[in-house]
Protein 1
Amino acid sequence: MNKKELGLGLLLLLISAVTGAINPAFLSLVNLLNMANLIGLFGVFALGEGLVIITGGIDLSLGSMFALLGVVFIDLLTTYQVPWPLALLAVLLGGLALGAIQGFLVTRLKMQPFIVTLCGLLIYRGAARYYTTDSTRGFGYGDEAATLSSIASGNVAGIPNTFILLIVLAIVLGVLLHRSVYGRWLYAVGKNEEAARFSGINTDIVIATAYIISGGLAGVSTVLFVFYTNSVSPSSFGNFYELYAIAAAVLGGCSLRGGEGSILGILLGTALLQVLQNLVNILGIPNSLNFAVMGTVILIGVLADHQLQARRRRKMALAGLARTTPQVPFVQRQQKAPPRGVDALPARTGDKA
Amino acid sequence: MAEILFELAGISKSYPGVMALDDVSLRVDRGEVLGLIGENGAGKSTLMRVLGGVIAPSEGVIRIGGVDHARMTVNEATQAGIAFVHQELNLFENLDVAANVFIGREKLVGGPLKLVDDAQIRARVAPLLERLGADFTPDTLVDNLSIAERQLVEITKALSIDARVIIMDEPTSSLTISETERLLEVIADLRAHGISVIYISHRLSEIMTCADRVVVLRDGRTVGELARDRLSHAAMIRLMIGRDLKALHTPPKRPPQPGGCDIVGLVTSAFPDRQIDLSVRHGEILGLAGLVGAGRTSLARAAFGIDPPLGGEIRLDNAPVDVASPRDAIRQGIYLMPEDRKKSGLVLELPIRENVTLASLKDYARMWLISGPAERKVAKEQVKRLSIKVPSIDMEAITLSGGNQQKVVLGKWLSMQPRVMFFDEPTRGVDVGAKSEIYALMRELADHGVAIVMISSDMEEVIGVSDRIAVMHEGRVSGVLEREQFSEYNVLQLAIGQAPETVEAAAP
């Protein structure tokens, strides 16, 4: 856990403690479990958004993807009576496919991620509304997907399944991002795509994979949201949700320039956003101020982070200066040393002749 | 006698725990070219920043026109006629030449509307460009200019503020041989007009050509001053590092081995109508000289799969290899040390460890999960083998000096199995000490059978380090020189497409 995440964690605890002190209902089990459910719902696709942001890109299309995949999902289950495992598979594949298309446009056709996913946002939303002729789709009174519904909106020992799923996905993606070769490549590509390419990394595939993962997680989120609301109205379902994900990622330490961020940070960012929303309700702040509170906290959070980083850099620069300059005589002494012997030679070369 | 423009007397600058400058005195006369030399870290840049008003000295006075200043602001320095031409040019590529020259000092029309008077600005820039012999106009977009031309824009900027002294920090590090000559002519012309130049360079032959007087700094102190008639390479080097550099060239331990890399009829996207033929044997260092834009970097990029070739083939030990991407090249043991290490060689914000293993990460991973200890071991080995001076392998690469950064890029490739290595300007912006270490490493690699192609615009380096020199001219190899034919003259002749005296040029 680095300083940034520690700071965010402390901020989360502080806000929770203060809110709980003002209104103990905030810390009631019911409220906490409700928040856990929402964190689960909003966390899953924020993880995907985080990966895309680490590549230096952005995915604006998530909310519209939920609407399009959502209406297709409900239609498959109700109108076409498709067995739920197949419908689930179709939605997941649909998410992966949309992610793959966006990834292809960004990497192979060198289009800007903002534009590609903005067009995605418009197109998917339009497609969803056309497909349903703008009418809300919901489940009838039948039990088309009772099993899946009870998985998606159920709980284990009171803990919402959405939250459990989020933790599982976070651990998997955490290992992928922080321990695997792919994760290292993702950071390298995000920071300096050219140097990564010069190191033999297939940067196109690395970046496209991030969009595909994001699309897949959007598919998962679609199913969770559908069973959370039990109906999909194509013009409003998932509206602005991509902005929650971007906000959570940025709050959690992802830089929009790419190459920075962590899974833990994104989780904490998501949690903080949901706590803020909840706090607005619990403390009786007018609901209309909801977004304003969120915006203010993100602004202050990112500003504070910048200031701290600038201070750290100044310190490092001074320390660096103090460290390098007296080394000059040392460097010269080194040069006078006899030429390095055979033991200093590269151990392996390609000369097999 | 010569009128003294300004004087720095007893300047010291200390940072916590360090004396960056220690009692340095420097005088600049009107209309002289003052060479300022010293290894990296000797204090040249700090001294020039004091002069430019960027940093305040801890002690000492700056005397201009008989007035003593304890420190100067940037504005005062500019008003005193001190101008910089930076090593890394600070121009706006999206603006035209005139706009760049007058940036921040735009002439205005329209009263309260404060519109920019482009016509007036252009009219004032045009005669200055003419005076410098520039073959572009004030309304040329800087984006379309070469580095040498951009430098002229910087000089124009200096002239437009009536500079009395222009400080040039490593002005030729990115220039070709002929562009360098052109710049030296411009400097001579400035001098004739009574403008002084402080010329900072690692390239001693340029200093020999243009300087009236040379001041040598070492470890923040002035260690000597040489008048024009006492200038010699040996004298300057002795002062700079306190000892003579032995001749650069270390002969190979054994003759070149058969096999190696053969480039046959290669067509690069930069010159779609030219073919390149070039061979480099295992165990030799082939210098690749030529003007910037002659196609040397395009060749290296094609061979490394960055810009896949349009035609021709690359053979490794007589077997054709397919390099459609850097991954393919790396798999074959063909590596490239790129020209711009900060942009293409390193991910500056990542630790040294991650930079060293970036290209071979899968070797230290099982099931795609990285093994921390294995990775650390390799990084430590490379830091030790290359004597990279750094307290920890977890330091970000951005904190290292140029020479050490270059060694990290080298470490990335040495931790694998090089068979052919392209070095593109391996010692640009690297201090003398690290330079000779890099040369020694190249020779060690060659002696272990690696075929090395070294692209360089530094004549001393090309002649001093190579075993053979291939020279490129407009997209093709115009000739290859053997060691006994090495001379500045021959390289230059081939570089401009003329036949040298002592070899037959390759057939066009």
Protein 2
Amino acid sequence: MLSIFVTAFVVGGLICVIGQLLFDVANLTPAHTLCILVVAGSILDGFGLYEPLIDFAGAGATVPITSFGNALTHGAMAEAEKHGFVGVLTGMFEVTSSGISAAILFGFIASVIFRPKGKV
Amino acid sequence: MKGLLKFRTNPTIAATGVVVGPLEKKSPFKPLFDKVYDDERSGQPTNEKGHSKLVEDACMIALRKAGFVPDDADFLLIGDLVNQMTPSNFCASELQIPYVGMFSACATSISSLLTAALLTESGMSACSIAGASSQHNAVERQFRYPVEYGSQKPETAQWTVTAAGVAAVTPNQAGFPAIVSGTIGRVIDLGVTDPFNMGAAMAPAAADTLERHLNGHGRKVKHYDTIITGDLGKIGFEIYQKLIAKKKIETTNNLRDAGAEFFGDDSDFQAGASGTGCSAAIYFSDVYEKMMVGEYKRVLLIATGSLLSPLSFQQGDTIPCIAHAVELEMK
């Protein structure tokens, strides 16, 4: 039981370490870092490597943004099997639509209720 | 040598006005600021309107201390970092003083002061308001990320201050700091592209202007009670001192940097303060006060500016930098 938490923490943490290194060592912007991690997750899934990582680390692999890339590829491939090439386009946002809709919805609610502030 | 200014009539700074935001309460110079806002938007609905209010207040304070009202002032020479300098433009709209927007990024405090001194020397100005301002949230949004986004900053980054500092420049009056000479800087670009390391980008410009000022006006560093740069910050200030040593300029312990000192040793503010208002706030509070009470007789102010735009660094361009210098003397 406890080992699930430990592997999730270590794997999720390592993905974040990669992101932090892209910031601090490679001097990339947050937008670049985000894109690289999403694309990395997508490519890993293309080679069938991300699902085993999820089986191994659970939330450690599904919570970081790399999982979004994984979901994009996953949806595209699943739909492609059913509907051929057009499925690549329709499937890409099938699995990810919940994440995208949630971001829009909660972003909207937060912006209606709160007023952003600086450090003060 | 080109770009040197020598004033025969020695225009004086009759009064100054410095207004800051709430985080600037943490500055050791807080008691010297004329007005401190508790609200980061200076009681206005937006950051940019708050920015405008800050500089307007500073102008009114300087005018009042000099015994003037806005109608008495001949010229308003101010600038900031926001696109097309709208905060300064709106301030000028309120005050109705004939206005020229001044832009030298964070070196605007000095380029505006030198322009005011030239207008005064020409006999066409009895009172000019010169200065600069910046507002943290408005500037960060434009050049880096909106503060609400909560982006991480590296240790080399500097903290854009919320501050406005202006000076009322008049023909020579006894008992006030006089503007005796100045040096207009050259743009120096050694290829730094990181907008989170402005200090390193600006240090060579500061060292170049210092060298040209000393050689051009036949001065030694020890001639001054202090030589205070604008906003090199802790990292930039170290590089600047190394560059001076490399140029074999004999220094004493009279070198200061407004950006490195603004927030004391508070590590919350990374490598120190920056922003157009940074040098203006320290020059027109601490340095001005020390001259008025006789602690400083001769000072050299060197304000440094990074002349980048959000677009230029996104396209991977380098950061061109400038430094302007002005020599003040208490006669």
